[in-house]
From TrEMBL:
It holds the Pfam family HisKA_3. GO terms for cellular component: membrane. Its EC number is 2.7.13.3. It comes from the Bacteria. This is histidine kinase. Residues 169-233 form the Signal transduction histidine kinase subgroup 3 dimerisation and phosphoacceptor domain.
């Protein structure tokens, strides 16, 4: 809308100037003057895309009719957009236009000669109609650039402050996990090792060895998590190198039997059923499927005692289905503490891969955890 108003203003002021400003009536017929003013107004409306047409129209109109409004607007937009080298060239062009206007004024004589050919008046016209608008455009551009740079700097500072706060929080969480969780798990491993060595009962020694192995695996996983928390965000998200991946392999479906054996050793009757033709899937999908079974079995340990549990893995044409279903507990064991966020985090993990997680209580007291993951 403002460019429409700008075009209308250039049209009206240009027509006013050439029709008889300062007692200098034009010898041209009115339709010609209207056409020139209309072309100038149209070029001013087009200045949002390019100001060069307005500068060309302004130069011709100034030399021919001493119509200065188009050249004034063009000079302002030249200051907004031109680089330093081109500004010098533009000023040279303005001087050439003033010189051509002075020559035409000498030829026509009269008031036109006074306005455009007398050195003092010609200099004033050049300064007021070309120099000052150009300077105003340069000032406005510098102000806008400074404001934009200030906004970018503030945005960068905000991002840096947010990153610093996140890094501090990650370091605090890592310290708490190391000082509390890692210490407690280390004590469990040590006591399990002592019990394995000192126990004269073979079944007790095997159970102690199993507890120690699970504890050491938990410590290894905890070290990985602490490393991610303490590293910068960019390093935390980088892929593992082949050497690192070989040293710390992430669990996949190939490790599922070992996970089930650990639950069986604790007295839970766990069965596994695979359906469909087994085939390689993305590592992220396999890890997520493993975590689904792991979390479901953890909940069985915590809430269902020694309830029989069935694990089903089905390979579909374009998805992997994981289902863990346990029967109602006949004699629930001690209720173990938990964070209450296991299934919430599991759902987020599945949904990040475009899958769905379904959890529901079953008739008879059992519970179902089922996930469908695109593969």
């Amino acid at each position: 809308m403002r460019f429409v108003l700008l075009g209308g203003g250039v049209f009206a002021s240009g027509l006013f100037v050439v029709q008889g400003q300062m007692g200098m009536p034009s010898s041209l017929p009115l339709p010609v003057l209207l056409a020139v003013a209309a072309v100038a107004g149209l070029a001013a409306w087009h200045v949002r895309r390019s100001w060069w047409p307005l500068a060309a129209v302004g130069a011709v109109a100034y030399v021919w009719l001493l119509m200065w409004p188009p050249l004034l607007v063009a000079s302002y937009y030249a200051g907004l957009t031109l680089t330093r080298g081109r500004i010098a060239a533009y000023l040279g062009g303005c001087l050439a236009v003033c010189g051509a206007g002075a020559v035409v004024g000498r030829i026509e004589g009269g008031l036109r000669e006074t306005l455009s050919a007398v050195p003092g008046n010609a200099g004033f016209m050049a300064l007021a109609m070309m120099g000052l608008p150009l300077a105003a455009g340069l000032v406005v551009r510098a102000t806008r650039e400074a404001a934009a740079e200030r906004a970018k700097r503030l945005e960068r500072e905000q991002v840096m402050r947010a990153e610093q706060v996140r890094a501090q929080e990650r370091a605090r969480i890592a310290r708490e996990m190391h000082d509390v969780v890692a210490h407690r798990v280390s004590l469990i491993v040590l006591h399990a090792g002592a019990l394995e060595v000192r126990s004269g009962d073979e079944e007790t020694a095997q159970a102690a060895a199993l507890i120690g192995g699970i504890g050491r695996e938990a410590l290894a996983n905890l070290r990985d998590v602490l490393g991610v928390l303490r590293s910068p965000a960019g390093e935390a998200l980088r892929p593992l190198s082949p050497s690192e991946d070989a040293l710390r392999p992430l669990p996949t479906l190939e490790d599922l039997d070992r996970l089930l054996d650990q639950s069986r050793a604790l007295g839970i009757a766990v069965t596994r059923h695979d359906e469909g033709e087994a085939r390689p899937v993305e590592p992220a999908v396999e890890r997520t499927a493993y975590r689904v079974v792991q979390e479901a079995l953890t909940n069985v340990h915590k809430h269902a005692g020694d309830a029989a549990t069935a694990v089903r893995i089905r390979y579909g044409s374009d998805e992997l289905e994981v289902e863990v279903r346990n029967e109602g507990p006949e004699a629930p064991g001690e209720e173990l503490p938990g964070s209450g966020w296991g299934l919430v985090g599991l759902r987020e993990r599945v949904e990040l891969l475009g899958g769905t997680l379904r959890t529901s209580a079953q008739d008879g007291g059992g519970f179902l955890v089922a996930a469908r993951i695109p593969a």
